[in-house]
Fold:
Amino acid sequence: MLTTIAPIGVWDRSLGKDANNLSTYAESSKQERKIARLRLLDAARNILARHDIKNSTGSNRHRTRYCHAVPAFNQDIYITLNSSEESSSAGISGMQTCGSICSCPVCATQKMTSYGNDIRKALTYAELHNLRPVMLTLTARHTRQMTLKYFKDAFKDAYNTFQRHRKFRDIKNTLNIKHSIISREITYGSNGWHYHMHILYFVPASSVRHAHNKTGEVISLTSLWLTSLELNGLDPTE
Structure:
């Protein structure tokens, strides 16, 4: 599938906006949203229990089954109340949390808020050091017959081939890439599970041009990614 690089100047504005939205989501959400997420968590626990889903090693019950359901280790449970003239809220502290971004609607929100804060800090750092963010998206064709494990493993092997290739290292040196943030995402659609990656590179402003789909770097990266897919058993059709 296509390898795309977003234009410089567009992503730094939109990324900053998205990062700020994520970082303030928890503070701006209403009590009803918190209740809705807890109800979703209860539904998730019931599904995990009904099918007896284990952890990644298959030895223990899935951690989300215990999230906000049992006391944390050596912790007492307290009911907290935060009241003011403008708003009030109540909660329970001392409960065990799972930290799962894929299975838990409560922990996922907290994780995304944390990630938003991290990205906002990175963008602030980049601006202070005259670095520009460049977004690289890597995807691959897949079918409903492919299991998530098969597609994910093949995709990760393709990415390892991609980043270890001499051509990629040359482009990395040419652009003088200083830092990067990698986001791995999984969605589900008409063709089944879709595992893909978004990579945010921070490049000195002096060494980068406005990116578009016809620059030499984009053409080279696209060709290299399609080759990496083919070498690892995935469809290299652009």
About this structure: The longest helix spans residues 105-128. Confidence is low (pLDDT under 50) at residues 1-15.
